Amino acid sequence: MIPAAFEYQRVSSVEEAIELLGRDEDAKLLAGGHSLIPALKLRITRPTVLVDIGRLGDLRYVREDGDRIAIGALARHAELAADPVLGQSCAVLAHAAGEVGDPQVRHRGTIGGSVSHADPASDLATVLLALDADLVVRSPGGERTIQAGEFFTGPFSNALAHDEVLVEIRVPKVEQGVYLKHVRRAQDWATVGVAAAHVGGRVQVGLASMGGTPLRARAVEDALAGGATPADAAGHAADGAEPPSDVSGSSEYRAHLARVLVRRALEQLS
Amino acid sequence: MTNIAHETISLAVNGERREADVEPRQLLVYFLREQLGLTGTNVGCDTSSCGACTVLLDGESVKSCTVLAVQADGGEVTTIEGLASGDELHPVQQAFHEQHGLQCGYCTPGFVLATVSLLEENPSPSEEEIRRALEGNLCRCTGYHNIVRAVEAAARAGA
Q1: Closest residue in chain B to residue A52, using alpha carbons only
Q2: Distance between terminal CA atoms of chain A?
Q3: How far is B61 from chain A (nearest CA, A)?
Q4: Contacts of A37 in chain B (CB under 8 A)
Q5: 3-state DSSP percent of chain B in helix, strand and coil, to 5
Q6: Can you give the residue ranges of every domain in chain B?
Q7: Closest Cα partner for A173 from A114, A205, A144, A132?
Q8: With 60 as the cut, is the pLDDT of residue A144 above it?
Q9: Does the distance separating the beta carbons of B1 and A5 come in below 8 Å?
Q10: Is B16 helix (H, G, I), strand (E, B) or coil?
Q11: Domains, chain A, ordered by start
Q12: Nearest by CB to A8, which of B62, B66, B70?
């Protein structure tokens, strides 16, 4: 499979990328390419210009910033999985990064690219949602922060304007967190994924592949806050969700999986 | 879209400096196979799943069907053709040979390079770590047991 033709511009700064995006509404950002290139090959997307930010080394970091951890958008999955700071202070995200795809994908794929792609099955997006991560975005006029809960607006859709670039992800330090996923075969997307973590005195739960975006399992969180046992709270895992039916599982099967995986995650957490 | 500018790329392939003009949409695997004639890298699924097209880019395993040639500009690529020294097989190749870690052989270049990358990151992997590290490579002849044995043998040989 060969992508449709496009122009290629490798930029040396975020500002240059913003300018190029602003000039052409059919231009698209390229980071690691592990969501975009498969879509280009299937010709699901046919951008006129690819703006390659993949070499902006100043967006490739993990560092402590007070009570949070700041992650550059171009940090790669393999780097996050092995990062000592993340492993110490937000191990659930490091673990989830090590669960993405396979080693070859993790060598190239970036957290910013994965999150911007906004796949409802994304492991990292689901963990970031459960953690109430902040997404720092560079705009033509400056910078703004979008909460993970506001970022995912639909299947493969996000809250970024066309000429905005996600530059940093900020997560709280969490001592306890779990990410579990069920896959049909090695390297498949999650049939269902569950992230659970203690954040700010509460247990927060995220779900992958249970709807059009990664979801928060609010009914589970509220039940736990009200004193329910993990097993009872997990019974609410699919409340209000409309999980899809596809080759990996029916809607009913996904709802069942969500209840089982949430229970296991909560039991591991407590 | 007829006048798309070609990009000039310069990269080291198996230690040899190569310069070429490529279309931006040229995938690394087709650049290697069709422009450089290095057909040891196979195209299997063409959808980032099977790992037959695995090569090393700057020392790390990547699926060359999911990397644009322009993204490899300035980098170092190692294909299966670049592993042996003359007639002497690379230790990972030798281990696959001795442990019969292949049947039809189509997936083998990808498995060998995925293994080289694994052993660079983890020189003494457990069996479970080996199986996890090879998740991105499929063998349709179901030769996984011998492939795992080959990786263990290569690790013992200090590959």
Answers
A1: B71
A2: 48
A3: 5
A4: 27, 48, 66-68
A5: 40, 20, 45
A6: 7-82, 91-156
A7: A132
A8: yes
A9: yes
A10: strand
A11: 7-52 (3.30.43.10), 57-172 (3.30.465.10), 177-269 (3.30.390.50)
A12: B70
Question: Measured between alpha carbons, how far is A162 from A139 in angstroms, rounded to an integer?
Answer: 9
3-state secondary structure of A193: strand
The model's pLDDT over A155-188, given as tens digits with 9 standing for 90+, comes to 999 999 999 999 999 999 999 999 999 999 888 8
CB B6 within 8 A of CB B23: yes
pTM, to two decimals = 0.96
What single-letter DSSP state applies at residue B142? -
Tens digits of per-residue pLDDT, A208-236?
Answer: 999 999 999 999 999 999 999 999 999 99
Closest chain B residue to A189, measured at CA: B49
ipTM confidence score: 0.96
Best residue in B6, B7, B25, B131 to probe A by mutation, most A CBs within 10 Å? Answer: B25
Assigned fold of B91-156: DNA polymerase; domain 1 (1.10.150)
User: What is the spatial distance between Cα B113 and Cα B78, in angstroms, rounded to a whole number?
Assistant: 8
Class of domain B7-82: alpha beta
Question: What phi and psi, each to the nearest 5 degrees, are found at residue A162?
Answer: -60, -30
